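To fix ideas, we now present one chain and its tokenised fold:
***
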Amino acid sequence: MAKSAAETNDFDPQLVQDILSKIDGYHADLASERGSSMARCRNIRESISNVYKEAKARHPDERTSVVGQDQDQRGDEP
């Protein structure tokens, strides 16, 4: 039969619980920081998306690409 945890190591069970509780607290802190960071990143991505939308709205002809305009201005023919 297997020995109980108290018989296999020298750690006090209450000490182990205290240590594990601290580690769990730090894991909760990490999860909170991750959530905050993801929210900030989401806001930045939304801002980037809005810039793309603004550029599309300001473009006179959606079918003409920027590359095509550059070629037309230089006189290059594809």
Remarks:
- DSSP finds three helices and no strands in the chain.
- The CA atoms of residues 5 and 12 lie 10 Å apart.
